Amino acid sequence: MISALIIVFREVIEAGLIVGIVLAATTGVPGRGRAVLAGVGAGVLGACIVAGFAGELANLFQGSGQEFFNAAILLLAVGMLTWHNVWMASHGRAMARELKAAGHRVKTGERTLAALSIVVGVAVLREGSEVVLFLYGIAAQGGTTAAGMVAGGGLGLAAGALVSALMYFGLLTIPAGKLFQVTSGLITLLAAGMAAQAVIFLQNGGWLEVFTGTVWDTGWLIKDDSIAGRLLHTLVGYSEAPNGAQLIAYGCTIVVILILMRLVNAANSAPKAKHA
Amino acid sequence: MNRQKIQMLLAFLMISTPALADAFLLVASALADAPIIVHLKDHKFSPATIKVKANQPAMIVLFNDDDGADEFDSSSLKIEKVVPGHNKGNIRLRALAPGKYPFMGEYHAATAQGVVIAE
Asked: Are B84 and A55 in contact (CB under 8 A)?
């Protein structure tokens, strides 16, 4: 039971953190609960479908279908996170003003919900299909241990939800005026980490074979497998021994997002400055 | 002028072609290395110790002979690959520095353990 708990928790920790950040980034936006639930629901449904067709998926693209699929949905999530941040660059201040004002309804935030809903869906889908396969395998074995393992799996899921809640309420302690700046920063790092992870899948699929050498190794300090390693992996894209292509993808994602945010911000504030 | 350029190009090609051909052969021979066949049965890898040449990519074909899925998982190899029951998965190893790279079947980590040794 404990081993099931640990495995499921390890798989859901990433989705849990992302849900927490998304909830914080949409604080006060009406309908965000529905959007996040829709993302989780679609992710779970998708995870079951992916798990059910795991064999067929694996055999696509000369046996690299899984890698292709993972890279594709990760890059989709990177695109959505980028779009959210760029959108926030032009609307973030208005959102913060509305959040501070009475009522706490941030109407301007509604347009970014769809993008973040997709990000949640992708996060749940990716790790969820592994949880489904794992739990299904245990359930199929039957017997008394199976019941304990499924209970462990349930507890693992609950622990993942707890991570979401901790992340969310932790972020909510940030003053309203600064909250969206912090979530934008977190989302930039999230996107960069996902881009680096997509590179790994492209390498494992055999599509990207440049700069595969390890650049540095901090495995002596924090192992990828440890809980701290997993948390940092999701939040800032930590990898104990990143290779060149991973680092390039990581850096480029940050630079592109920051440049786009700045461009949008400049385009937006220039006309307003004249009025002021 | 144009003729001179063409002559130079031809000369360049004559010199470089054997070098290019060598490079292609080198790549081809690396790719042509037979994949390493590994079986997963009763949640154990056989062979559990896999030797590969250092600094050269390799391919493992993992046959999962069990009923349930398992995930070939190795943080040091940067590989997470789900292989459904009674199915196979191609696992690409990038060029590895000499050393030991442990891996496991994540869903049955108590018994499914192995190591890649690059030398």
From this structure: yes
